[in-house]
Amino acid sequence: MKKCLALFVLSMSVSLVWAGGFMIAVSEPDGSAPEGTVALVQPLGCHQPSDAVFTATAEGISEGQRQSLPLQAVRTAVGSLAVQPIWPAEGTWVVAVSATYRNQTRSVLLKIDPASGRPMLGAGDSRNLSRSPTEKDIQAALRAVE
């Protein structure tokens, strides 16, 4: 009986640790996205992940100069972030998106295809982080685009 009680308490503790999880997912734009959107970043998890606070920047090297351009946080009706391009066509670029919800931060670095100027959304083309990206993360992502 004591073993059963101990297992029950342990299983409930594990459930509480995982309850309220938060993550973000990236996808192609759908019909809910504003015109000009090149990617959607959707908050996922328990409670109200659509209440997540987003920040997004285009990080790049253009004409030999390192640049960081803040992106406007355009939200869709379902709470996703609509990524809209403002970065120059020339240069090497990544988009850094961070979302914070209930003291949890999740981020993604999206490589921008130099030929199309659009995010590369294939397997291995983005990097997910369980924190805000550092300059080292951004530099590594920029090197991976070149």
Characterise the protein shown here.
The protein has two helices and nine strands. It has 146 residues and is α+β, with helices and mostly antiparallel strands. The strands form two sheets. A five-stranded antiparallel beta sheet has the order 4-3-7-8-9. It has a four-stranded antiparallel beta sheet with strand order 1-2-6-5, with no helix packed on it. β3 and β4 (65-70) form a beta hairpin. The chain is globular, with a radius of gyration of 18 Å. The relative contact order is 0.17.
What tags apply to this protein structure?
single chain; 146 residues; alpha+beta; 5-stranded antiparallel sheet; 4-stranded antiparallel sheet; 2 helices; 9 strands; 38% strand; globular; disordered N terminus
Question: Topology of this protein?
Answer:
Layout: H1 2-18, E1 22-27, E2 39-45, E3 53-62, E4 65-70, E5 74-75, E6 81-83, E7 92-101, E8 104-111, E9 126-129, H2 135-145
Antiparallel strand pairs: 1-2, 2-6, 3-4, 3-7, 5-6, 7-8, 8-9
Could you spell the SSE succession in H and E letters?
HEEEEEEEEEH
Secondary structure: helix percent: 10-25%
* Model regions low in confidence, pLDDT < 50 over at least 5 residues: 1-17
- Estimated share of beta-strand residues: 35-45%
> What oligomeric state do these chains adopt?
single chain
Rg calc: 18 Å
Write a brief caption for the model.
By secondary structure, this protein is an alpha+beta fold. The protein has two helices and nine strands.
